[in-house]
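Project outcomes to date are best conveyed with an example. Our students and postdoctoral researchers have been running inverse folding experiments weekly, and each run begins with a structure described purely in tokens. The record below, which covers 97 residues, was selected by the lab manager from last quarter's runs and is presented without edits.
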């Protein structure tokens, strides 16, 4: 799906609809000292080898999440499309003339 770079969306700080710049949201690296990682490392100690989890089938698509920045006051908020899709592109325009 192609998304425009600039959309008009509601800004809580401005209390009005303003133009927002869209950027695809990328999560940061996971924490190494999180509780799940620590417990997994503890279960791998000794001669037990790699800890085996129960196999779960992951969904192949994700709901696209964007970081929308207001052009007037430069506050940021998440903009999520509630549909699952495999590919998303920002800034590509499909001009049918």
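After processing, the design step wrote out the following sequence:
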């Amino acid at each position: 799906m192609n998304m425009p770079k600039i959309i008009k969306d509601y800004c809580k700080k401005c209390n009005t609809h303003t133009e927002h710049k869209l950027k695809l949201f990328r999560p940061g690296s996971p924490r190494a000292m999180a509780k799940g990682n620590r417990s997994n490392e503890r279960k791998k100690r000794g001669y037990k080898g790699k800890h085996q989890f129960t196999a779960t089938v992951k969904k192949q698509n994700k709901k696209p999440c964007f970081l929308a920045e207001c052009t007037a006051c430069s506050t940021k908020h998440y903009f999520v499309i509630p549909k699952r899709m495999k590919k998303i592109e920002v800034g590509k325009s499909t001009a049918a003339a």
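Residues 8 and 19 are 4 Å apart (CA to CA). The longest strand covers residues 16-24. The training component of this project remains on track.
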